[in-house]
Amino acid sequence: MKKRRFRWELYLIHIIIALIVLLPLAFALISSFRPLDEIFKFMSPVTWKTFIPVELTLEAYMSLFTERGFGRIIFNTFYVAFSNVIFGLLIGSMAAFAFATFRFAGKNILFLLVLVTFMIPPEVVAIPLYSLVDSLGWVDTYYGLIVPSIANGLVIFLYRQFFLDLPNALIESARMDGASWFRIYWSIIMPLSKPVTVSAALLIFIQQWESFMWPLIVTRSKEYRVIQVVLSDFTTEYATYWNEMFAAAIISVIIPVVILLPLQKFFVQGISSTGGKE
């Protein structure tokens, strides 16, 4: 009896937490289909009209793509995120392979510096990083958005921990057969690293998709704006376009969720394991 009661209490707590998390998202979704002048019209008193639109309209979504160039913004965000995923996985896995396989002077100190890089808040290095990017002429370019974020200390750490659990016999037998280090890395180690690769790719993608401060600093024109920066552009001196802001926010939330859900099994497996193989 006590077990059943505890179970129902636990379910009730989960339902309350889910409502706290989902209600703001539901309100944003509903409001994105309302005309601008009706968004806060039915907030007090709270009735069924608060949660169900009286008049459904796609005006906010149409305005995003016809007037605000949201198609270009989504392209920029995808381009920056996927470029970081591809180059970040390549550089991170190669660096981790070196840390896990080779012995060289200062290896532990260098790895300690790698760990420090993802513990330091990005705000600390924003000004010197901007000075460097500006001196290279990369301000307001894709290079400025992509290159500074390619090397990711957390990705290197995840790959290194995974590689350390792989049996040394694989590498030793491949070396005896005359395989080069790159072939061992590319043809033997990486095919065994699918779970951690998916986890690292999702971490990089979500980090870049949600990035706001650095894109705001390094871009000046609308041509290179990404989605999180644009979300701050719906407030003007005279009005706030709440319906368009909610529509853009819903798009910015749905896309990562759609990508993450089918891969969540690999994501959890790659994060929780320290070297499990399929």
Automatic annotation (TrEMBL):
<feature type="transmembrane region" description="Helical">
    <location>
        <begin position="184"/>
        <end position="206"/>
    </location>
</feature>
<feature type="transmembrane region" description="Helical">
    <location>
        <begin position="109"/>
        <end position="130"/>
    </location>
</feature>
<comment type="similarity">
    <text>Belongs to the binding-protein-dependent transport system permease family.</text>
</comment>
<keyword id="KW-0812">Transmembrane</keyword>
<dbReference type="Pfam" id="PF00528">
    <property type="entry name" value="BPD_transp_1"/>
</dbReference>
<dbReference type="InterPro" id="IPR035906">
    <property type="entry name" value="MetI-like_sf"/>
</dbReference>
<keyword id="KW-1133">Transmembrane helix</keyword>
<keyword id="KW-0813">Transport</keyword>
<dbReference type="InterPro" id="IPR000515">
    <property type="entry name" value="MetI-like"/>
</dbReference>
<feature type="transmembrane region" description="Helical">
    <location>
        <begin position="78"/>
        <end position="102"/>
    </location>
</feature>
<feature type="domain" description="ABC transmembrane type-1">
    <location>
        <begin position="74"/>
        <end position="263"/>
    </location>
</feature>
<feature type="transmembrane region" description="Helical">
    <location>
        <begin position="12"/>
        <end position="33"/>
    </location>
</feature>
<keyword id="KW-1003">Cell membrane</keyword>
<dbReference type="GO" id="GO:0005886">
    <property type="term" value="C:plasma membrane"/>
</dbReference>
<keyword id="KW-0472">Membrane</keyword>
<feature type="transmembrane region" description="Helical">
    <location>
        <begin position="142"/>
        <end position="163"/>
    </location>
</feature>
<feature type="transmembrane region" description="Helical">
    <location>
        <begin position="245"/>
        <end position="263"/>
    </location>
</feature>
<dbReference type="GO" id="GO:0055085">
    <property type="term" value="P:transmembrane transport"/>
</dbReference>
<protein>
    <submittedName>
        <fullName>Carbohydrate ABC transporter membrane protein 2 (CUT1 family)</fullName>
    </submittedName>
</protein>
